[in-house]
Amino acid sequence: MFRAAFRRLLAVDDPPERTALAFSVGVFIAFSPFLGLHTIAATLVAFLFRFNKIAIYTGTFINNPFLTLVPIIAASYALGALIMGRPLSLPEEGLRLLQEPHLLTAAYWRGLFTHLWDIVLPFSVGGMALSIVCSLAAYPVTLKLLRARQRIKAKDEVGTLNDE
């Protein structure tokens, strides 16, 4: 799925710089901690800045719920915990609340909201750090691939003209 989307990305007719920017913005959105809002955010940004939708969605769908979501969440939490100087393991009380949900009790919800920040804050800090780093890395890599594709395409066109 990602391979096919990346092939479509390479075939986009926008300037390589603009396509690489749209892809890297999509990567930023993919790693952001706003789970469940990635597609909506990508659509809004694509329309606001008139980015190529294939490019921004390809970047955004790096965070695939079936393959990469769990590793990205784990990496986000771990990086956030490291940045904040917290232990890498989830707090014991927060972990207990996640493992033994008593959804119909007020005590469960009070405990969850009390300990939620022990999980959400490191995840959010790590997610934003990963968003920035991965999107900054995605731009030059994508730009290089798009320019190489453009050169190959230009050589093929020149070769075709010479053959005629």
Strands, helices and their partners?
Blueprint: H1 2-10, H2 16-31, H3 38-49, H4 53-60, H5 69-84, H6 92-99, H7 106-163
Helix pairs in contact: 2-3, 2-4, 2-7, 3-4, 5-7, 6-7
Walk me through this protein's architecture.
There is one protein chain. This protein has 164 residues and is mainly alpha-helical. The chain has one domain. Helix content is 77%, strand content 0%. It contains seven helices and no strands. Helix 2 packs parallel to helix 4 and helix 5 packs across helix 7. The protein starts with a helix and ends with a helix.
Distance between the termini: 37 Å
Q: Quickly count the domains.
A: 1
Structural class: mainly alpha
Radius of gyration: 21 Å
Number of strands: 0
Count of helix runs: 7
| Mean pLDDT figure | 84
Features:
single chain; 164 residues; mainly alpha
In short:
By secondary structure, the protein is mainly α.
